[in-house]
Amino acid sequence: MSRRAAAAPGCETHDMVLVHRVFRREFRLLADIVEATAPTDTEQVTRVSAHAREMLAALHHYHRYKDELILPKLRSAELDSTLLDRIQTQHGQIDALMRRVDSELSEWEHQGGAETADLLVEGLRRLHAELTEHLRLEEDSVLPIVAETLTASEWAELGKRGMASFSRGRALVFLGHIAEEADEREWSEFVRAIPAPVRLLYRVFGRRGYARETALLRRDLRTVGKVVK
Description:
By secondary structure, the protein is mainly α. The protein has helices spanning 14-36, 42-76, 81-110, 114-149, 152-164, 168-181, 184-191, 196-217. Helix 1 packs across helix 6 and helix 2 runs antiparallel to helix 3. The relative contact order is 0.16.
C-alpha cells in the first residue's frame, strides 16, 4: 500500500493516492483479463474493451488536467524544474503507450486471435510497469510538494475536473473503483468532499452497479488462477 502523502493544512493529497491505486490495479488486471478471455466470447471481448477504453480515457484526462492545473503552479513557485520536467516526459511516454494499447484493443476486438491478444497483453503489461514507476515518483516526490504549495481549492479543482469527465452513471461506477481500494477511514475521508445527493446515488445505485460490472469483467480470473487483489 502506498504511503500517505504529507499534507499541509487545507491541502490533503491522499485522495489522489487512492486514484493511483485504482489505475495500478485496473491496468494490471486488464492484462490478466484479456489473457483469460476466449477469443470466441465476443460479448466478453466487447465488455473488456469498453472497460479498457474507459480506464485509458480516465488516465488521459488525469494527466491532461495535471499538466493544465498542477504543474504550471508548481513551476511558478520557482521549484527545481528537473523533477517537473521528468514528470512531463513520463506523461508523454505513457501517452504513447496508451495510444499503442488503444490500437491493439481495436485489433483484438475486431480481429481476435491468439497473436492479437498476446500483443495487447504485452502492451498492457508494459503500460502497467511504466505507470507504476511514474505514480510512485509522484507519490514520493510530487504530492508532498503539492501539499505545501497549492491551496485546498486549487487542489480540489483537479478532482472536480476528473469526475466531470465521466457521465453521471459512470462517475458512480468509478467511485466503486475507489471504494475497493480504500480502507474504512480513507473512504470516510474521501466521501466527505462528495455532495450528499451523490453519496446517496452511489449507495443506492453505484455500489451495486460496480459489483455487478466487475464480477462480469473478472469472472474468468479465478478460473485460471489469477489473483484479483
